Amino acid sequence: MVLLFLFFGKDATGQPFHYLDVGISRSSFNQLSDIYSDRWELSSVNSVQFRTPFYLGIAGVGLDFFTYTSKEGFSEISSLSASAFFGLNTIDTKSIILSSGVLIGIQQIESTDFGENPVESELFLAFTLEPQVKLKSFILFSEFQYRRVFNYHRQNLLVIGAGVKFRFKIGDKLRGYID
Amino acid sequence: MTKITQSIVKYLSLSILIITVITATVLSQDIVLKPENHILPYYSLEEWIYNNANWSYDSYDLNSIEAFSPNFSSTLENEPALYINGDRYLTSWLTNGTFTFPEISFEQIDSIIVQPYRKITNGEFTASGSIQIFLKEFPTGALYGATYINQVNDPGPQARSKFSSPNVEYLSKKKVIVFSLPDILGTTFSHNLDWFSRTNTLDYNQNTNKQLFDRTKFFEPSGNLVFQRNKETNFLLLNTLENSLFTLNLTSALTSKSQYYEWHPLSGIEVPASHKTFQTSANFKTVEKGFYKNTQLNYSYSSADTLEFQEIDKPKFNLIEQQVHQTSTFGFENKDDRVNIYLNNIFYNWEDIVTGNSKSLLNNSINIDYLSEKYGSLSLLLGNYNVGFEYRKQLSNNYSLNVSTFRSNLESSGYNYTFWNEGIGFSNLNPSIHSVLNSSSFTNIYSTAKISSHISTNKYQLAWNIYPVHYWQFVHTNIDYDIISGSQQLGSEITYSDVQNVGFVGFFSSLNLNLIHKTSLRSSISGRLHTYGSNEYLENSKGINNFIFMQSLIYKAHRNAFYELSFRYISPREIHEYESLKASSSSYTSRVRPIKMLNASFKTWLIDRSLLVTLSLRNMLNSTESYNTNGQYYNMSIHFSAVLHIGKK
Prior knowledge:
The complex is a heterodimer. Chain A is mainly β. Chain A contains three helices and nine strands, in the order αβαββββββββα. An eight-stranded antiparallel beta barrel of chain A has the order 1-3-4-5-6-7-8-9. Chain A is elongated, with a radius of gyration of 18 Å. By secondary structure, chain B is mainly β. Chain B starts with a helix and ends with a strand.
């Protein structure tokens, strides 16, 4: 990732915190690991994301909400994933943006079926591609994500979804405070 | 190696030592760490220091850490001496060779000086080197920090199914709170909490090693077998009283591990234990220059107890240790010369509550330190524990030399053999399966010479040192473990003996290179070039890594944003103590394979540098280990920490 940034480094250094994109999206999970898909169905994912130009490229944070439904009669598992985003706007024109990057996060799941440790937290990594269309302050975007959850048996997922973002311009005063 | 070859090597090494003494030049080039310039993911401050200083170490939980020092013997010598703002801080107790101290926030630390070799520090002989932490002038305000470290390989939604694996949930959760009120007696108060798990790969490989797997669990009073959840609490209070006549620095600390595992060397097992240490110290310094400089007093009270809900056949101990350190410094100086005289007394008292046995020791020493701009510095130490001298000289702007010879009487220290003889801490052991044999004089005699170099330009900074160490006499400790049928304890036999003319050549090198476009490269390598001596000594020396290599690529996008990619390679080693076990059971191995770690880290300051956020991925190569308790080294983990500073800047 660092090497990638270095490669594009000159163009990637922008004005940090110049704006803040706040977005919501809905996606579906495609399970790529039989050991999980044989036992669980995953609901659609409701997500919220925050993105801003950083000292290098684009940075942000996001939250995903979804549930696991058992095919074997276990109780439902609720899941909350929190992640950080590091990426670049590899294409950035007046109306079209293509951003790519990595997500580093933790998937937390909770179920009374887990016994003495009801809460499970696990690292996940994802590569994401987001084509976006700018309509003034609104941005329509779609999301293609390959995600790997580092459980003992690795869980591979393909995430496809769409959403909308609103771009807030951040004034110099507030930017000076954040920076 | 034949005897002739060994002799040649021995005399070559001695020649290096002698030539070094005659020709070189010195002043030690120490390792200086600035937290502001480093990111490297870490589990604890101690581990961060050892990693960045490229110091070889081992740990069962990455909370308490055992440094590999050149000497394997006296328990009082095994760990480096720690100083906070020049005041001594006690970090270990009794037979415990581990090193633990408060998780001081990086935001509080200005710099850390690491000296990983034997020397005299502040009038005291520090056989395993020293670590000196210098704190920033922290303005009025408060600091709150939280860290969460999660390791991969949890079962996820597969818990309670045939695909399940043990759930370790998290490796470490830390919280730190700091209040600074410099206008009120120069007060800084910090409190930190650390919940840590020794999650090691044994948990994931229970089929490989059922016996060791079970040993990493413990029984609750209810009878449930659970994974350990260790907890450490630290309180640290620093005060400074100043007037026109004197400065008084006060340091008070309480460290408590309410539940953790203590390695018990004789039974070859980690025992569930609790431990508390309270220490308080005062450092009184006169403001006006005169013959009297300062007096430092340090008192500590430690208690350690095995938890009651232990398995029946594990050893039981309940111990109290008290220490009183006193160092007074006198000296005078003129334009070119300076003489300091240190009077040092250390009193120890150990008490075994189970047996009622106790043992006291008093070590006294005087150190005369003469520093001359022209002739270098000569330090003489006379005491019932250590006797010797150290000579230091700056040869040129870039080179320095340090030569020393010391004789240590280990019976004047807290030594396993002493405790065994006095019946302290080993009360519940069975003599038919545990024994300690001795044919040693318990005296180490050694000489060393260290050449250091430091070259600094706008483009790069290069530092290196090389130090042959020759033991004229060395107390060799041989530990042999055996499997006892039906017992979780191991049988053990410890033998102490003297070996002559053994040693090694150590080295350290680091290079900081400024590359293009806000990028820099940091490389470091340390280890041993050569080890020589008796077969017994050579067998034991395999327990230390031959070398450690570290390389970091740092991209500083802005003064508020760092990215780092680092690689670390630790060479394999052989644990001699496990060789009998290896021969008798395939569950055991004596080889610790090489460790290769790849870490990616990011840190940024936000809100006018009031909020520091760090995110790291550690061990991205993520290969598993199946036999020992160093799983944290091998498994991938994610670190997230945030530190918020409220108050004046």
